[in-house]
Amino acid sequence: MDNIGQLIKQISNRLINDLNQRLKKYGITFSQLQVLLIIKDHHKMCQKDIAKKLKIKHTSLLDILKILERKGLVLRGTNEDNAKYSELFLTLEGEEVLNKLDFGKDLTQELMAETLGYASVEEMLSKFKEVLRRLEEGNPNGI
Known about the structure:
This is MarR family transcriptional regulator. Helices cover 64% and strands 7% of the residues. With 143 residues, the protein is mostly helical. It has 2 domains: 4-101, Orthogonal Bundle (Arc Repressor Mutant, subunit A); 105-143, no CATH class. It has a two-stranded antiparallel ribbon with strand order 1-2.
């Protein structure tokens, strides 16, 4: 019997690689895209919270932010309410990159729906959310 964990990891890796290939023409990676989207939606969110939301180390986020700043897609500024926190902003160029991307379709979900049927995908999505919730609670077996 195949190991479902390994299979999910292989699918995830292939999807991320595919997305990185598609994003090359915009000059960004999937990790950079995730950060840009969070900044777009939550520009007052502190860096520590962004790292937590992405489930990455703070130092990894800092590396991504340096790259995005070098590319001219993000700016850091001082928080008006608390000077020890910096705020992140998309530049016009950063906004243009996001505007060029088509977020209308979730290609992963479309592929799975074509393969398994929409009802199966919705059920799997629900089950995966439950597995993730249990893992985050530190209770993977539901005990």
